[in-house]
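Illustration 12: ATP-binding cassette domain-containing protein.
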Amino acid sequence: MESPHGAAVGAEDFGLKGPRGWVFRHVGFSAPPGSLVAVEGPSGSGRTCLLLALTGRMRATEGSARTGGLELPRKAAAVRRIAALGPVPGVSELDPAFTVAEHLRERALLQGRYGASLRTLLRPRAERRATARARIDTALEAAGLDTATLPKAERTSVRDLERLEALRLSVALALIGTPRLLALDDADLKLSPAERADAWALLRSVADSGTTVLAVCSEAPEDVQVVRTAPTTAEEAPAAPTAEETEETEEEESADAIAETGRA
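Figure caption equivalent — predicted structure in token form:
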């Protein structure tokens, strides 16, 4: 998939502190557009929170970061418009009761409604449907998901997908919006060594096409840029965000979404 304008991502002394202590701290790195960056660390070390902070979905409390030239957290809403989430538990999970086709149609519909220009919305319905189908096919190809090989093709339920197939579907859904940055959690979770190699090959392919990729993992390959979140001292042990913090983030995102809808 063509996405030649990937987003540069960087942070300096970046940190997030919750009521129970530091979630992550002292994160610093710089990645040019089209990079493949692995966010590595043990479970509970703040990997997911760092991913969400760099995509404008969680507010950090220390240091600075920029995504696509946009300062965080001040330009978080703008960052969310150029950054798409792949699979992130509790945030952008696939619905196991939906079929592959339902997921794809829903994402294409949302992209057509909120990501299209007024001129595009005024085109004939048949033309808009053809455009949406072409966008879906391009995203599926970029994610390496051949729906014809699935048990029931696009009518296959998500619950019947293998782990790697579900990962490819999530990536395809994210790429429908042609983002400058793709971020995904648990890229290597529950994958065999061979499947893990295939997953990283997929992410390298997306990055090679121009889209910057941030991927949380437990163990990164040797040939990717790595950002580590493991604490250096006992005092800096990470703490998960509280329910109150999560609710505040969701309220901010809802307000932004309402505002964007009003401007559409």
